[in-house]
Design brief:
The chain is an all-beta fold. It has no helices and six strands.
């Protein structure tokens, strides 16, 4: 009798970048996943998980409109992992994925 070949675990598909272009000084962020387990090994139910304050920048607007009519440069760029304020931004849902749309001023730091 032949043994069945073991199957390799598949990685979850990375969500596609949404077709959204932020305006002005807005930034589109995908929040990082919440921890499923505590450091001590206790599995957390969804109701006990805190929303992470970290995410990845997906898209940037045109920049802040300055007094002279020009646009200011962003301090962050697409692909940066950032730390942001707990209740900053507006949560939006597109194609079943959740994103945050926030002002660049709500971003506290770039990680890494």
């Amino acid at each position: 009798m032949a043994k069945p070949k073991p199957t390799k675990p598949t990685k979850p598909a990375k969500p596609a970048k949404p077709n959204i272009r932020p305006l002005g000084e807005k930034v589109l962020i995908r929040r990082l996943e919440a921890d499923q387990m505590t450091k001590g090994g206790i599995v957390l139910p969804d109701s006990a998980k805190e929303k992470p304050q970290r995410g990845t920048v997906l898209a940037l607007g045109d920049g802040k409109l300055l007094d002279d009519g020009s646009r200011g440069d962003f301090q962050v760029s697409a692909g940066d992992t950032v730390l942001f304020a707990s209740y900053g931004g507006t949560e939006i849902k597109i194609d079943g994925q959740e994103y945050l749309l926030m002002d660049e001023s709500d971003i506290l730091a770039i990680i890494g």
